[in-house]
User: Fold this.
Amino acid sequence: MYQDGHKPIVPQRNFRLSQPQPVKPFLEVLSGNRQSVPPVWMMRQAGRYLPEYRELRATAGSFLDLCFNPEWAAEVTLQPIRRFRFDAAIIFSDILVIPHALGREVRFEAGEGPRLDPLDTPEKIHTLATAADFTKLEPVYEALRRVRSALDPKVALIGFCGAPWTVATYMVAGQGTPDQAPARMLAYRAPDAFAKIIDVLVENSIQYLLRQLKAGADALQIFDTWAGVLPPREFQRWSVEPTRRIVEGVRAKAPHAKIIGFPRGAGAQLPRYVEQTKVDGVSIDWTAEPSLIREQVQSRVAVQGNLDPLALIAGGDALDRAIDAALTSYASGRYIFNLGHGIQPETPIAHVEQMLKRVRAYKG
Ligand code: CP3
Assistant:
């Protein structure tokens, strides 16, 4: 027992020691054990490139209605696993459910992406709730429980949240913008007010991730999609430091939690990011420099990535060459095959099949 009366959260596989649990190759890599065939999954693997997703989506009402219906969310999470037998499922939800649980209005406009009430002045930030209403997120935990019980025990289940910086960029601007200038500007002009948003997101993300572990997530991913727009000093303050606090906060209650960071666009700052945040793995985008990653990142943690989603759309020889380049660069170390960012809706399913066949034929 911990001082505050909470029991530490132990990964499920340690519960029944008499009954050996099947090995999950994805978790093995995060624990430091390279697999001869790299485990594989795809960022945004449940989504519009799948006809079965589009069919359910058309009947579900709004995107958040889909996220908050445990039966539908579980079904959509499992669709790509049934079709492609990926080594990991990621729970179907969104990073913007946290602002929603903090009482901000969040909508997803068809074809336009997310829309929120902009939180763009110190006065408005002053009124931001400090604690999320976690009952609003109950359907996400229920979906996790359903997926875990339906999933092959060799397949890992990933829970996630957005990194505070990336979530804050949408909260401040009220939408996605090409370079998230509104949040960058606010962070320069009113750093104390901006720090309040970040602090609220750090604390609530810790609670949210711990609840996802409790509901059956085997690993967690922290998506910092907009890390790459920050200069080094701001990257340290708004991306590295909040992520470090989340990892520390989660591990204080769940010491064995496996956590992957995705600071998209971090480039040469990746070694510092992994060293300071203490993540178990890092997802890299397709612009990463292989020698830097091998020598200064993969030497410390597992690496996940980094096929260009456009190569997956292109298919043919271009796709084979891109897959081989990723395998040659990273598969000799602890490696999880993935895309460098989310799969795009226009991606042909046959190209995903071509990718899986080639990755699984890898002999290394
Ligand atoms: O399959 C999975 O990966 C799990 C589900 C998932 C979604 N969003 C579903 C989704 C995950 C992990 C996310 C993360 C997410 N959401 C990120 C970080 C990762 C990344 O891709 O950069 C970000 C920045 C968001 C915010 C967000 N949600 C945006 C900008 C958009 C609009 C752009 C788009 O892709 O449509 C969304 C909507 C969204 N989230 C969709 C899905 C399947 C599409 C909505 C629909 O189907 O109508």
Remarks:
- Residues 95 and 204 are 12 Å apart (CA to CA).
- DSSP finds 16 helices and nine strands in the chain.
- The radius of gyration is 19 Å.
